Amino acid sequence: MEKQVKSFLEFIENDKKLSSNTLQSYRRDIMQLEEYLEAENISYNKVTKEDVEKYIEHLKEIGKKTSTISRNIASIRSFYQYLVRVKKIKKDPTEGIQSPKIEKKAPSILSSEEVELLLEQPKNVDLKGIRDKAMLEFAYATGMKVTEIISLNVEDVNVNEAYVVCNSGFKKRSIPLGSISLKALIEYMKNARPYLIKDEKEKALFVNINGKRLTRQGFWKIVKFYKEQAHITKDITPHVLRHSFATHLLQNGADLKSIQTMLGHSDISSTQVYMQFQDDTIKNVYHKAHPRA
Asked: Which of 38, 134, 253, 254 could form an S-S bond across to 249 if both were Cys, CB 3.0 to 4.6 Å?
């Protein structure tokens, strides 16, 4: 099975151009299945639909979340569809297997006052403070995901026209930058980044104190540090800034389609989750006006 898993991962990496995080998820899910099959003494190429159903029950029994189980099924389905494609098996055992329905939870958001308080924390007194101020302002101003922000290069920002180009997989989108975010970003690019980088060839927009591209963990630690400095009791992750960005735009009259474009949602139903933070008047207008509401 190990050989087949390796060739499958190579195939999806080349064919679908997936991120390393997604590839690692596929790997983990399939390795977990492999452990289960070994314990049950079942060969991977003899797996039946009933075996897959029992495995799903096993995941439920060990307390896996619905979203995790759903992702597991998707990973296993892709693996077995690949095995059918390369003629290692004749029938896909995941055919007809339904993914559990995932309830869309209300995203955690900050109030406008809490956002102000958080963004006031970094002080422009040293290189790190200038960078942190620019980065937090940028995260709230664009609503970009952490992986998107840390993947940005200097060339992706157009300070003259005040926008950033986000390259997310096959989708490329332009996001405007507000005046406060732009001012903080220019300050960082002129007065901090040149002194942080050790190598002139470094392309990353946001770098750590060693001059290398900032990591997800590094970004998360920065947000956590300033949350504590601001004495905000809510749990704040970088993703909460994204949710707050979308909600505050909607509350201030932005239309869903524009927010969908800025967030990079392929399906507007993902954006509609922010409607629940609106007052009833706006909800009613939406339900009356939208042809598919």
From this structure: 254
Q: How far apart are CA 231 and CA 250, in angstroms?
A: 27
Question: For the chain, which residues make up each domain, given as ranges?
Answer: 2-85, 112-289
Catalytic residue among 26, 188, 242, 274: 242
Kindly report, residue by residue over 21-55, the tens digit of the pLDDT. 788 888 999 999 999 999 999 999 999 999 999 99
Cβ within 8 Å of residue 112, ≥6 positions away: 248
Instruction: Please report how many Cα atoms fall inside a 13 Å half-sphere around the Cα of residue 163, on the Cβ side.
Output: 9
Q: Name the pTM for this structure.
A: 0.54
Burial class (CB in 10 A: 0-12, 13-18, 19+), 128: middle
Give me the pLDDT at residue 191, please.
95
CATH topology of domain 112-289: hpI Integrase; Chain A (1.10.443)
242 given a catalytic annotation: yes
Q: Fold identical between 2-85 and 112-289?
A: no
Distance CA 30, CA 24 (A): 10
From CA 226, how far away is CA 120, in angstroms rounded?
9
Taking the alpha carbons at both ends of the chain, their separation in whole angstroms is 47
Q: Could you name the CATH architecture of 2-85?
A: Orthogonal Bundle (1.10)
Closest alpha carbon to 151 in 19, 13, 292: 19
What pLDDT does 290 receive?
Answer: 41
The tens digit of pLDDT for each residue in 211-237 reads 999 998 999 899 889 989 989 888 777
Are 73 and 56 within 8 A, CB to CB?
yes
